[in-house]
């Protein structure tokens, strides 16, 4: 039994995930969080990550060269960042970002002209670091529930109260409470 459990655990350790796990990359005095890539419009994706300075000084500054930020799809196609945002600044070329010690600062890399069939990046690389398996998230807002239709088929002599309604395709599933009219 013990051998079987160890063998199973060893086998599970060899499985490579096909999704993004929390990846943090440390390079020198900088720590980079896993990018979160989100559709912002058709064919345009923003990949957000935080950079934290952990060195001895009170602050540091990095320069992000947006055109040197590259993403790769599963087939090996390369996409180059068209702009970057960080520290309240935006640039299509060189982006200086001030980093106070110990405070995560958000950096965003934008990619445009992506194929509509692309659902994530196999890799993202910049400044000598890389991240793998970054699925795209959608910014599509969840539509507000449609107003409930007027009740039909309710027996007379009762008040009907609907609660805990949730969309179920084109209709709703609700809990109905019937109370006699007095």
Structure description:
The protein is mostly beta strands and 182 residues long. The protein is 7% helix and 51% strand. It folds into two domains: 20-137, Immunoglobulin-like, CATH 2.60.40; 151-182, no CATH class. The chain is built from one helix and 15 strands. The strands form three sheets. Strands 1, 2, 3, 4, 6, 7, 8, 9, 11, 12 and 13 form an eleven-stranded mixed beta sheet that branches. A hairpin with a 2-residue loop joins strand 1 (25-27) and strand 2 (30-32).
Describe how the helices and strands are arranged.
Elements: H1 2-13, E1 25-27, E2 30-32, E3 36-41, E4 44-53, E5 59-65, E6 70-72, E7 78-80, E8 83-86, E9 89-91, E10 94-100, E11 105-111, E12 120-126, E13 129-137, E14 158-168, E15 171-180
Parallel strand pairs: 3-13
Antiparallel strand pairs: 1-2, 2-4, 3-4, 4-11, 5-10, 6-7, 6-12, 8-9, 8-11, 12-13, 14-15
